[in-house]
Amino acid sequence: MSKQKLSSQTPPKTPRQSATDTATEFAEPPTEPRKTKGFGKKDDAKQGPKKPRRVTRDYLMNYATWYLEHFTASRARLEKLMRGKIRLSIAEYDTDPQEAEDWMKSVLNTCETAGFLNDQAYALGRARSMLRKGKAIRVIGADLNARGIASNLVDQTITDLRDEADDAGHNDMRGTDPNLAAAAAYARRRRLGPFRHPDQREEKHDKDLAALARQGFSYDIATRIIDSDTEDLENLLQIIDGL
Predict the structure, then answer these.
(1) Are 100 and 86 in contact (CB under 8 A)?
(2) How far lies 36's CA from each of 16, 29, 30, 39, in Å?
(3) What is the pLDDT of residues 190-232, one digit of tens each?
(4) Alpha-carbon distance 158 to 143, whole Å?
(5) What pLDDT score does 35 carry?
């Protein structure tokens, strides 16, 4: 056999090379790397915002039911949210504005009839919560007005809140201005005045007065609370804790 013929032949494989080839033959084909959380968000952003949903009565009813299951709201708040969806649907699908308005009113009335919407209960519940957190009565009233609660209902809520605070107090505390109790609750929550370390009270006195003033309390109320001792405020705080 010539040298040229011998050189063209493939040399025999070693046992290690044979094993490697067999493993390669039966190995699974490479897979694409797994997408990690957040992968592709930039691509999604390039596609632009999602199209709004077409508004129907059923859609508004489902949305209202979902929202009220997760959040408490006034009628005005829910109406504002639904109007936003209606505007988008009008712009995107040429939804009839009057028909959508009728759907919305129907849904709101249905929710009220079923007890899902109750402005009176909503207003009183929010007022109680704000008083416990140390909000002044006038701040509470302004907040309810801003949330679309009717003025007459706001007045009734404040009256009810005062009555509840009065009932929560001891006999000798009846007729106490609930603003005093709210100011005491705020001082306790923020550790102002008598709730500070004794070594800091004098140094922080004016700062603590200003903190109560920013919450809507008068100078007289702020001074009375900041200059009191914790024992003097126990009865006031029982009014708040009793709500």
Answers:
(1) yes
(2) 38, 21, 18, 5
(3) 999 999 999 999 999 999 999 999 999 999 999 999 999 999 9
(4) 12
(5) 54
Alpha helices in 56-174 (DSSP H): 57-70, 75-93, 97-114, 119-132, 137-146, 151-168
Nearest CA to 164 out of 220, 233, 109, 240 is that of 240
Strands, E assignment, the chain: none
Per residue, the 3-state secondary structure of 155-204, as one string, reads HHHHHHHHHHHHHHCCHHHCCCCHHHHHHHHHHHHHCCHHHCCHHHHCCC
How far is it, in rounded angstroms, from Cα 17 to Cα 35?
Answer: 35
How distant is the alpha carbon of residue 83 from its chain centre? 20
pTM: 0.74
In this prediction, residue 173 carries a pLDDT of 82
b/e code 68-100 from CB counts within 10 Å (16+ = b): eeeeebbbebbbebbeebbebbeeeeebeeeeb
CB atoms within 10 A of CB 24: 8
Which residues of the chain have a pLDDT value below 70? 1-48, 171
Instruction: Give yes or no for a contact between 119 and 75, defined as CB atoms under 8 angstroms apart.
Output: yes
C-alpha to C-alpha distances, 164 to 157, 159, 242, nearest whole angstrom: 10, 9, 9
Token match 């001891």: residue?
Answer: 170
Contact 97, 90 (CB under 8 A): yes
